[in-house]
Write a structure and sequence with these properties.
InterPro entries: Puta_zinc/iron-chelating_dom (IPR005358). This is YkgJ family cysteine cluster protein. It comes from Pseudoduganella buxea. By secondary structure, the protein is mainly alpha-helical. The protein is built from ten helices and seven strands. The chain has one domain. It has a three-stranded antiparallel sheet with strand order 2-4-3. A two-stranded parallel ribbon has the order 1-7. Strands 5-6 form a two-stranded antiparallel ribbon. Strand 3 and strand 4 form a beta hairpin. The protein is globular, with a radius of gyration of 18 Å. Bound molecules: iron/sulfur cluster (2 copies). The site of one iron/sulfur cluster has 14 residues, from helix 6.
């Protein structure tokens, strides 16, 4: 693709779209992170950008219906995960092979990863994607507009953005491997720990506002959210990845191409 086309792609702006009331969305998304099968409820309409964004889709070993619908030659083992977990890659144009005529051909049986993906996490946190690789998702993320039931809900959104910014700018303050590197997981981590910043924003807050104090509070918030120590939480994530899911057409939160030999990319996590 030449530079001009990339530039056009980058600047393409979609009409504003309603992302829903912020605090309701936040509560649902945090619950979905902790539960296994809640899924997102994204008003994607005709968008299927997630299915065209060079993402690997993780399919759990117990997702029998999905595994039965996807040709075995499109599935390969997930490094570091137990036997039975599978990844599905994408074609030369970054499209999921299950996307047929711009629709998910296994919609009723799409993987949980696809059901979970919610590009509103980028609108909520301000975390950005690589527009050269995921221009479609990026454009949709910029179009979302949250509403707020009141000032308290606006403050909650400010706390989420503050959490995301702190995580982005201060990764070096954390022990190795505690913070995820990819944008999806980083955004989801901000949703987990935003409470730390929410407390700091309370009038007369006595919370420790030094960087060290904030890092400690974030680690504790991660422990509390995941139910395991933060350092272990990273390894747990490796064993049982949670993907920010995809479009209703199913898609997973993928990670930008990192491309192994087969030219498939990493979908998420
Ligand atoms: S979740 Fe995926 S399909 Fe739905 S709006 Fe976002 S980018 Fe489009
Ligand atoms: S919903 Fe999932 S399985 Fe279906 S086309 Fe999109 S990425 Fe592929």
């Amino acid at each position: 693709m030449n530079e001009r086309r990339i530039a056009i792609k980058k600047s393409r702006a979609l009409p504003e779209a309603s992302a829903g009331e912020f605090s309701q969305w936040l509560q649902h998304t945090r619950s979905a992170q902790q539960a296994r099968d809640i899924g997102a409820d994204v008003p994607c309409n005709e968008c299927n950008a997630c299915c065209r964004s060079s993402m690997f889709i993780h399919i759990r070993a117990d997702e029998i219906r999905s595994l039965n619908r996807i040709p075995k030659q499109l599935l390969f083992p997930v490094p570091g995960l137990a036997k039975g977990h599978r990844l599905m890659g994408y074609d030369d144009k970054g499209r999921c092979p299950m996307l047929v005529d711009d629709r998910c051909s296994i919609y009723e049986d799409r993987p949980q990863t696809c059901r979970d993906y919610d590009c509103r996490i980028f609108a909520a946190t301000g975390i950005t994607l690589d527009e050269k690789v995921q221009a479609g998702i990026s454009a949709q993320a910029k179009a979302w507009r949250f509403t707020y039931a009141g000032d308290a809900n606006r403050l909650e959104h400010e706390a989420v953005r503050a959490a995301a910014m702190f995580l982005k700018q201060n990764a070096k303050l954390f022990p190795p491997q505690v913070l995820p590197l990819n944008p999806v997981q980083l955004a989801l981590t901000a949703l987990k720990v935003y409470t730390v910043f929410h407390k700091l924003m309370e009038p007369g807050s006595s919370a420790n506002s030094s960087d060290t104090g904030i890092v400690e509070a974030i680690m504790a918030a991660m422990d509390q959210f995941d139910g395991v120590p933060a350092v272990k939480a990273e390894s747990a994530e490796t064993e049982k990845p949670r993907f920010a899911a995809g479009p209703h057409h199913g898609r997973a939160a993928a990670e930008p191409a990192a491309g192994p030999a087969q030219r498939r990319r990493h979908r998420h996590v």
